[in-house]
Prior knowledge:
Blueprint: H1 2-35, E1 40-42, H2 43-49, H3 54-63, H4 75-79, E2 83-90, E3 93-101, H5 102-118
Antiparallel strand pairs: 1-3, 2-3
Helix pairs in contact: 1-5, 2-3
Amino acid sequence: xxxxxxxxxxxxxxxxxxxxxxxxxxxxxxxxxxxxxxxxxxxxxxxxxxxxxxxxxxxxxxxxxxxxxxxxxxxxxxxxxxxxxxxxxxxxxxxxxxxxxxxxxxxxxxxxxxxxxxxxxxxxxxxx
Length: 128
């Protein structure tokens, strides 16, 4: 009887965990699609999607040592897969821009959430 109760209890726990996994499935799929996306976002678009004022977002990225004073990503952030440098031509001259990867967007989203939780009235956030 003791063994039967233990098996029944274990099955109940497994069923509860499976139900939680089913509920979390849409969020997990969204996260995976963002992290595995080969496309990149401009810093402006990444900031807007994170509900952060673009100029304040770039300022925060510099303060947090993601970008140097020229707004180019540090090599460690490129190596981590958070950002990429993209070179385009503007008026016949090459221009290098920093782009945020899907993995970087997910990472920065977590960091921004921590900042927002600690200081929801911070000037870098849009007012809701």
